[in-house]
Q: What sequence folds into this?
């Protein structure tokens, strides 16, 4: 249980470890994009951890990073082709950030730091915890940016009709500012 | 020639890989504490990115497309980058120990730098010709170096300032990056679209 819980808050991948920044900032222009990216990462993280921890005894130490990267790239290709075929509009919205999951440091980081040293079941718990932690981080970030930047949440209008959207929130600069403030908020709560 | 210049200016300043595509954020936050290490990282990225887009272009257009293997794109690109980093590291260690001293420790980190893979993917989706891809890779790397150097310069000054405890470290760096991104938006006027 401890393996699962720690990714949700104490070792939160985005707010605590500052991993996976690139998709966290890039795709969170809306809440739905944040959730889609989170689900894609959960899938890749789950199956990569499964494979890495099953083959940990037969991979030579010197080439392990290359092996992990190829395993991750394979699952990312599966996700990418699946999204292109089944959810073309989400695939368009996430754009190049789906293939960029390959170099998302959360996945390689968990494979190297945890799955390559632990049993299959605890690796899977760790992967799920980190993946769900990442997803709620993206959901919060995406919701804040969508509410202030477009006045909507999951596409439903919630701000009053005369609300003037802060366009900067859905621009790159807004992503940095909101994430910076959220990290500061997490530090405050932790105190 | 004009096309190449446009790609150069736009990748360097307007569509900066770090500030508008969020590529290479990890080293941007992690290695921007000192100007000296930021410079080393910037040079290493520029070097590998130029090579990776050039070689990636050749492999994608001459091998993958020809044999209809485009679904191997991601696996091939990540392997090209990983082996390129390895070769460059061995080459530098063999022929220039001073360069190895300054770039050596940054090279292994570059394999998982998403700016390198990102620039290779952008080169494919934007259908660049060979020379355009080379210029794109080079200016992308220079743009990364420029931004990480500015950030390191700011952070070297900020450490003497008394800032609230909760903003120390990553939070302030991210907010600074946000302000930098706002400033760089001003460059958008350089090219009339």
A:
């Amino acid at each position: 249980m401890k393996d699962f819980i720690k990714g949700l808050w104490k070792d939160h991948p985005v707010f605590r470890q500052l991993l996976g920044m690139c998709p966290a900032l890039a795709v969170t222009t809306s809440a739905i994009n944040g959730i889609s990216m989170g689900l894609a990462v959960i899938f890749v993280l789950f199956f990569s951890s499964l494979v890495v921890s099953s083959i940990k005894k037969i991979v030579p130490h010197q080439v392990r990073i290359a092996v992990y990267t190829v395993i991750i790239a394979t699952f990312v290709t599966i996700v990418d082709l699946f999204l292109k075929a089944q959810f073309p509009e989400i695939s368009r919205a996430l754009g190049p950030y789906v293939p960029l999951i390959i170099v998302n440091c959360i996945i390689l980081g968990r494979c190297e730091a945890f799955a390559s040293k632990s049993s299959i079941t605890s690796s899977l718990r760790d992967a799920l915890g980190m993946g769900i932690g990442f997803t709620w981080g993206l959901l919060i970030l995406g919701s804040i940016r969508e509410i202030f930047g477009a006045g909507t949440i999951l596409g439903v209008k919630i701000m009053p009709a005369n609300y003037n959207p802060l366009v900067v929130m859905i621009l790159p600069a807004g992503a940095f500012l909101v994430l910076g403030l959220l990290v500061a908020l997490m530090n405050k709560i932790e105190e | 020639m004009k096309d190449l210049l446009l790609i150069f200016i736009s990748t360097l300043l307007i569509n900066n890989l770090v500030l508008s595509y969020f590529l290479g954020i990890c080293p941007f936050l992690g290695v921007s504490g000192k100007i000296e290490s930021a410079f080393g990282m910037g040079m290493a990225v520029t070097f590998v990115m130029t090579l990776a887009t050039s070689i990636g272009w050749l492999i994608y257009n001459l091998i993958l497309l020809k044999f209809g293997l485009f679904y191997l794109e991601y696996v091939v690109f990540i392997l090209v980058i990983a082996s390129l980093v390895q070769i460059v590291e061995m080459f530098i260690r063999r022929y220039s120990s001073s360069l190895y001293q300054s770039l050596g420790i940054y090279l292994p980190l570059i394999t998982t730098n998403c700016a390198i893979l990102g620039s290779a993917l952008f080169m494919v989706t934007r259908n660049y010709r060979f020379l355009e891809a080379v210029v794109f890779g080079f200016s992308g790397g220079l743009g990364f170096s420029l931004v990480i150097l500015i950030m390191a310069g700011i952070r070297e000054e900020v450490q003497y300032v008394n800032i609230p405890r909760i903003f120390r470290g990553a939070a302030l760096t991210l907010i600074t990056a946000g302000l930098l991104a706002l400033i760089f938006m001003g460059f958008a006027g350089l090219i009339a679209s």
